[in-house]
Design goal:
Elements: H1 2-19, H2 26-42, H3 44-55, H4 59-85, E1 88-90, E2 99-107, E3 110-114, H5 122-133, E4 137-141, H6 147-160, E5 166-168, H7 173-180, E6 186-190, H8 193-204, E7 210-213, E8 219-222, H9 228-242, E9 256-260, H10 261-279, H11 295-306, H12 308-311, E10 314-316, E11 320-321, E12 326-327, E13 330-333, H13 340-343, E14 350-356, H14 361-367, E15 374-378, H15 382-391, E16 396-399, E17 420-421, H16 427-432, E18 434-442, H17 453-468, H18 471-478
Parallel strand pairs: 3-4, 3-6, 4-5, 6-7, 8-9, 8-15, 9-14, 13-14, 15-16
Antiparallel strand pairs: 1-2, 2-18, 7-17, 10-13, 11-12
């Protein structure tokens, strides 16, 4: 009862603040973005400590994937928000003369953001940047599976941001359920497909627009490479995209590798050498690889390997330490396609390699499964690249690298189908939390009224002409540059 009263009171405060219209000013938006930048700059050590306690993340990983991402995104929004807010003028057809048109971006209102546990700082604050830039009030729900980071956000955000417009509420699934019972103007959720369905079902009761950032099985398609240097680069980028980011607990991580049989041994040998180079002879002693988030996820991943058919396919790694919640980087060669490891998102340090007779078969493999969040493809074949783009569907496609697309503010990030919908980052975040309102202004001058048949004939001809030409085409016509 107490928690429900807190939730309802917080929402009432946020709605009152939004109705005051203070969040719509550019000054307020910029002040909050500056506050976010100061928050991460002033608390780098606290953030690093919290992430180590929750996930065992190395400081370099913390800065790259959490602190750096937030600072970059906030600075980008700070420098662009006035331009994003500016009305966009649109040209109207001659039919509407004399008239003008523009599109205004207005905030949606009171926004609910559910953050995820694998990147508990950046996946909380990055969407918040877009919501602030768009002029909304926000209630942020951090993940209870990263309790130290959740506590940090709840304690620190009110010290740097407008506590009447941006609030943090912590708690478990029961709190999330209570939040979903309320009416929101937008819900932004990052997490599993299973919970995404629950969020969408609850949002449907109030016709609330939803952005779902989910996951899926993101394949890496590896074409046969002849250059030794290219093979080394490819291996580094796959290992980095699989294990160097939260030890595989990442929605855009490489979930499986598709490769021709003749190239499989070369690929596996190169991956083994790179794992050793990155994490040492004994990865469990390395401080540069994250641990599994909790016992439930550790047991879930261990269960995948307990299938005798899957265990028989292990060609590297496979050991674990339950006390330290550690599973070493593990490579599997051709596990059964009907096994759980190949039908469910892995979200951990296990990497199946599936061999094909011909790399072209990878197209059919991808299309036979739910649409992935990302397709990674390592190839120099331009024809094959075009085939991947034209014959598959995914949230995004990256050629010859992994994971790096997430940090690009100029690219939208989001899924398609079961991997989610909606997009954010940079201007796309601003648009995600805005309503684009079209505004048309007309003059009282030049009103046509039907009076007698000849006038009606004139109107019909006028409409035929006006629908064909807009202002620009009319000028070209009068100048004799268009027929």
């Amino acid at each position: 009862m107490e928690k429900m009263e807190e939730i309802e009171g917080s929402i009432a405060d946020l709605r009152t603040t939004f109705r005051s219209r203070k969040t719509t000013s550019v000054a307020w938006r910029k002040n909050q973005l500056r506050g976010l930048i100061e928050l991460v700059q002033d608390n780098e050590q606290k953030i690093a400590k919290a992430l180590y306690q929750d996930l065992g993340k190395h400081p370099a990983e913390v800065y790259r994937d959490e602190i750096g991402i937030v600072k970059k995104s906030a600075n980008h929004a700070l420098s662009c928000v006035e331009k994003w807010m500016a009305p966009k003028k649109n040209r109207l057809p001659l039919l509407y003369f004399p008239a003008s048109a523009q599109v205004l971006s207005e905030p949606l209102g009171v926004v609910l953001i559910f953050a995820s546990w694998n990147f508990p700082i950046s996946l909380a604050l990055d969407p918040l940047i877009g919501a602030i830039a768009a002029g909304n009030t926000v209630l942020l729900k951090p993940s209870d599976l990263a309790p130290e980071c959740a506590a940090f956000l709840q304690e620190t955000i009110p010290l740097y941001l407008d506590c009447n417009a941006i609030k943090v509420i912590n708690g478990g699934a029961d709190v999330g359920e209570k939040l979903l019972q309320q009416k929101w103007d937008k819900i932004f959720f990052t997490g599993s497909t299973r919970v995404g369905r629950i969020v969408m079902t609850a949002a449907a009761k109030h016709l609330t627009p939803v952005t779902l950032e989910l996951g899926g099985k993101c394949p890496a398609v590896v074409d046969t490479l002849s250059s030794l240097s290219d093979i080394k680069v490819m291996a580094k980028r796959i290992v980095g995209g699989k294990w160097a980011a939260c030890n595989g607990q990442i929605c855009i991580g490489v979930d499986c590798v598709l490769v021709e049989k003749k190239f499989a041994s070369t690929l596996i040998d190169s991956l083994k050498r790179t794992i050793k180079k990155f994490f040492g002879e004994n990865p469990k002693d390395s401080n540069s690889i994250s641990r599994i988030v909790n016992k439930n996820h550790f047991d879930r991943l261990s269960k995948l390997l307990k299938d005798p058919r899957v265990a028989a396919s292990i060609v590297h790694g496979g050991s674990s330490n339950e006390e330290n919640l550690f599973i070493e980087p593990t490579i599997l060669l051709d596990p059964p396609l009907d096994s759980e490891i190949m039908t469910e998102e892995i979200f951990g340090p296990l990497l199946p390699i599936i061999t094909l007779n011909n790399i072209q078969e990878s197209i059919e493999f991808v299309n036979s499964r739910p649409k992935p969040l990302v397709i990674y493809a390592f190839t120099k074949d331009e024809t094959f690249k075009r085939q991947i783009l034209s014959e598959t569907s995914s949230g995004s496609v990256v050629f010859n690298d992994t994971v790096v697309q997430y940090a690009a503010d100029v690219l939208p990030f989001g899924g398609v189908g079961q991997s989610g919908f909606g997009r954010y980052h940079g201007k796309y975040s601003f648009d995600n939390f805005s309503h684009e309102k079209p505004v048309m202004q007309r003059s009282f001058f030049l009103e046509m009224e039907p009076r007698y048949p000849p006038w009606n004939d004139f109107k019909i001809n006028f409409f035929r002409f006006a629908y064909r030409f807009d202002y620009f085409n009319l000028v070209l016509l009068l100048l004799g540059l268009k027929k």
